[in-house]
Design brief:
Chain lengths: 97, 839
């Protein structure tokens, strides 16, 4: 069976998360069709506790003040956290108040 | 012979007023570069070609000879309300250099130490919110201390929207609690007043419940004088009469569109299976998840689920309100019990439960009775509970998002571009309106924000806590000291509490910059004063906010542009432009553009490139074209005024297409209270009051109700149609109108009370609270409750040395302590025990 191709997805951090990560954007190489959930888990593995505290609640759900957009479209208008990502996707993670 | 000089230029320009939050479309007549007249714009659905006194007088604010015309810096390090700051004028370049240095240093150390406070409604949600986020501070505040806190959280919870509204087209009975909607005071006053006037001709009955016989009460069919702060008790008694005496209730609506059927355990929380609240299907005799197919929802009875006896929330409500008999409520409200019963029956019968009407071919429930609450009824210590009680009145008769009834402002968007989401089936505001208001998915934890958002999960703007953090940042264990404050159109004195308290807070800041049209109390504490443009000098795109100035009462969705009609006076600039300039200097302008791309929902062809810099005109051009296509340019909007789209029936009355529920039982609030208690105890914060975090609503007495001894009266404030908050006080035309108004600048006292105290009409009097006093001229009148003192909210103390107005400073009466705060929303109680004496 052919392997799923990897694709580079740009993630930009807007708002208060920048303070914590010290970074405004980064790239992740993910299998094509990976979901937003999968990408967040990868980001969590990379950044650890600071990322978790700002983005996720204790039960693993997204904090209400976190907005995620794929190509400037809110994920609520797409498939939510199961929105698939491709190599042309830009993910914006905004942590507000 | 007299020769008339012909003007070289004589033109009318479309723009949008900003003398209040109505954002009415106006036409400005400009002759040879001078504004000579302002009228309503017939192209604007929000004004319909009409304009109010405030709108007409806008040009007097533009041409105010006391305007700040250039930046100034202080030379006297001592700060105080009566201390000369020693202003020296400086260039904009020097001002920007000062600000840049301060903000750069703060950002490198801890950007959270910077706070921005504004009530600039056109900018606060996009440019300024984006600025604060990109800078890295969570401390961006809007609104004052008295209206936004309890009201908006209550509306988010119940309506799913920021604000309330009602349908005057079909309404036959309008019950106004502490507000004057439809009488030129409040939101969208222009169009609402037109609609209500038309409805009155068709037979709409208006009942005003208020301690003061204000402008609305004077024109209403009935004024019900109520003791200040007792509106919650009245609402609960009316609910009791409806449910337990008259059996008037829209049960099909309660079953389908509220959490009335949700089963509640003895501990007060929902019975859940696999996380879902359960209901009882009376037809099948079994418990089911709320979102399963249910033949017939049980609203009453006791049902055993997993061995636990459970009761539908509706029955708990019905039982709970029994203690609020009209007789008990009468003692609290001073309204006769018979009147309470009559009001309840009138409201309930007017709701015409079961009736329908066909609108544009669609048959809809008709519920022509609406209760509307705003500031006067809810800006009290237990304001959230009062507001939710009044909303419950609407809900139990099914008067929600249907013809004639109550509705929120824009729960759904044009062509359903947005719509609400749900948690546990309960309405959650659409993100475009939400400002992060998810009152089911909150987290309670140690505070990181000056507003203590983390400890007040059921609130929106927490400005009073900003004041508390400014006074003592360590009191609630904030991990940083606020050091820098930037304000525009947010006078923390006039929109605040006792001036000494605010002065103390302002002195704790190391640096304050204020943008202002004229020098005010904030300027007395500022290190830098910057000249702000008025709305007649600004370019702002689509200021008609979906949250508050985009009412369905117009029958339309509408978008217009506020354009500059004259060059700025002196060196005045639009403060949002200055903040953008600072962002560029500090290197985060690109971040702001990324956020604006999202906030403005810009199409690919019009998105802002973070690596470029755009003028305000360029951004405006992109925004309008992104929304309406290339043919609707900025010039088009300047020439034509508005784009309007007629609302379809489902955009006016969306309930029949919505599968959402609205709460009459607040399990989420109860849960939040447990978490707040847990966290505050862990933090060692003593005296944190969680007693109002209840699932069922109560009316509770507080210090204001318990007036006794020397402070035997309750001071409350009111609005007049010719003024807006404190903005309009200096406008000479409006000032003249207020001097002609027999109530505006006086101390209202009832005939009965005045006689007891030996006070006659026009006597000079002193009104004193536990923290401050004011003097004014008595207006002895029948138009006020005998236990109340009425002082309008607009006329505060002026800075020394400036022109005097007849000022009656209500704010100085208001203490700022634990007893004065609503511990759910953070709102400050605007009602104060006082004593009155003749001078």
């Amino acid at each position: 069976m052919p392997e799923a191709k990897g694709c580079a997805i740009t993630v930009e951090y807007l708002g208060l998360l920048q303070n914590v990560l010290g970074s405004r954007h980064e790239e992740y190489v993910m299998p094509s069709g990976s979901t937003v959930t999968a990408l967040l888990q990868t980001a969590l593995a990379r950044h650890g506790e600071p990322f978790r505290v700002y983005v996720l609640k204790a039960d693993g759900q997204l904090r209400p003040v976190v907005k995620i957009y794929v190509n400037n479209c809110p994920i609520q208008a797409l498939k939510g956290l199961e929105t698939p990502l491709s190599g042309e996707s830009k993910l914006s993670v905004i942590v507000g108040v | 012979m007299l020769q008339v000089k012909q003007p070289k230029e004589d033109t009318w320009l479309h723009t949008i007023c900003n003398m209040c939050l109505g954002d009415c479309g106006i036409l400005v007549h400009r002759v040879d570069g001078v504004v000579v007249k302002i009228e309503g714009d017939p192209n604007c659905p929000n004004s319909n070609g009409k304009i109010c006194a405030k709108g007409i007088a806008g040009m007097m604010t533009l041409y105010d000879p006391q305007r700040v015309t250039r930046p100034m810096k202080r030379t006297n390090p001592q700060k105080g309300l009566d201390i000369d700051p020693g202003w020296v004028p400086i260039s904009w370049e020097e001002a920007l250099n000062i600000l840049e240095e301060k903000l750069r240093t703060a950002r490198a150390k801890d950007p959270r130490e910077v706070a921005v406070a504004t009530f600039d409604s056109a900018n606060l949600l996009d440019k300024i919110a984006s600025w604060a986020m990109a800078y890295g501070t969570p401390n961006s505040f809007w609104a004052g201390y008295f209206c936004g806190q309890y009201l908006h959280s209550s509306m988010y919870l119940t309506n799913g929207t920021f604000h309330s509204d009602f349908d005057p087209e079909y309404c036959k009975y309008l019950l106004l609690f502490g507000n004057q909607a439809g009488f030129m005071v409040g939101l969208s006053p222009n169009i609402t007043s037109q609609r209500v006037a038309q409805a009155r001709k068709r037979g709409l009955r208006v009942v005003v419940v208020d301690p003061i016989g204000n402008n609305a009460a004077a024109k209403a069919d009935e004024w019900v004088p109520i003791k200040p702060g007792a509106d919650g008790a009245l609402a609960l008694a009316m609910i009791n009469v409806l449910l337990n005496e008259l059996d008037i209730c829209d049960r099909p609506f309660v079953k389908k569109h509220t959490n009335g059927p949700y089963l509640v355990k003895p501990d007060g929380f929902y019975m859940r299976q696999r996380g879902k609240p359960m209901v009882w299907d009376a037809a099948e005799g079994q418990a089911k998840p709320y979102d399963a197919f249910v033949e017939d929802y049980a609203l009453e009875g006791t049902y055993t689920v997993e061995g636990i006896p459970c009761t539908p929330a509706f029955q708990l409500l019905k039982q709970h309100v029994k203690k609020y008999t009209p007789e008990v409520a009468s003692e609290t409200t001073t309204i006769p019990a018979a009147t309470i019963r009559r009001l309840a029956e009138e409201f309930g019968r007017a709701a015409s439960i079961g009736s329908t009407v066909t609108v544009d071919g669609v048959e809809l429930p008709l519920r022509p009775a609406a209760a509307n609450i705003y500031r006067g009824a809810g800006s009290h210590r237990h304001g959230v509970m009062a507001a939710l009680a009044i909303q419950t009145l609407n809900l139990i008769v099914g008067s929600f998002y249907v013809p004639g009834g109550h509705r929120g402002m824009n729960l759904i968007g044009p062509s359903w571009k947005w719509s609400p989401s749900m948690v546990d089936g309960m309405v959650i505001p659409p993100p475009i309106l939400g400002h992060g208001a998810n009152y089911y998915g909150y987290e309670v934890k140690e505070p990181q924000t000056m507003g203590l958002y983390e400890l007040f999960p059921i609130s929106t703007n927490r400005s009073p806590m900003m004041l508390m953090s400014s006074l003592d940042w360590q009191k609630n264990q904030l991990p940083y000291k606020p050091r820098i404050l930037i304000t525009c159109r947010r006078n923390l004195f006039r929109g605040g509490v006792n001036y000494d308290v605010t002065a103390e807070a302002m002195k704790n800041y190391e640096f304050i910059a204020t943008f202002c049209v004229r020098l005010d109390e904030m300027a007395q504490f500022a290190d830098l004063v910057l000249p702000e443009q008025t709305y007649l000098e600004k370019l702002q795109v689509f200021p008609n906010s979906l949250s508050w100035s985009h009412t369905a009462q117009t029958g339309y969705f509408y978008w217009g542009v506020r354009q500059p009609v004259v060059p700025p006076v002196g060196e005045a600039r639009d403060w949002a432009d200055v903040m953008i300039e600072l962002a560029d200097r500090l290197g985060f302008l690109g971040e702001i553009y990324k956020l604006l791309n999202i906030a403005y929902e810009l199409n690919e062809a019009y998105i802002l490139d973070p690596s470029r810099k755009y003028t305000q005109e360029e951004i405006a051009e992109r925004r309008v074209k992104s929304q309406f296509g290339p043919e609707k340019s900025l010039e088009w909007f300047k020439d034509n005024g508005f784009v309007s789209i007629k609302r379809k029936v489902d955009e006016l009355f969306p309930l029949y297409k919505l599968d959402v529920r609205f709460p009459i039982y607040y399990e989420n609030i109860k849960r939040a209270g447990q978490q707040v208690q847990e966290v505050t105890e862990r933090m060692g914060l003593k005296g944190w009051d969680v007693s109002d975090y209840q699932a069922l609503l109560d009316w509770k007495p507080d210090h204001a109700r318990g007036e006794s001894g020397e402070f035997d009266l309750l001071a409350c404030n009111f609005r007049v149609p010719t003024h807006t908050q404190g903005w309009s006080q200096h406008n000479p035309w409006l000032g003249e109108l207020s001097r002609l108004n027999p109530y505006a600048q006086k101390v209202l006292i009832s005939t009965e009370t005045a006689k007891k105290k030996g006070i006659k009409d026009k006597d000079p009097v002193c009104v004193e609270s536990s923290v401050g006093k004011l003097t004014g001229e008595a207006k002895v009148t029948e138009c006020i409750h005998p236990q109340a003192i009425g002082i309008s909210s607009h006329f505060n103390h002026l800075v020394k040395g400036k022109e005097k107005a007849e000022a009656v400073n209500f704010n100085n009466l208001i203490p700022f302590d634990a007893d004065q705060i609503d511990w759910v929303s953070t709102g400050v109680d605007a009602c104060v025990p006082v004593k009155v004496s003749k001078i």
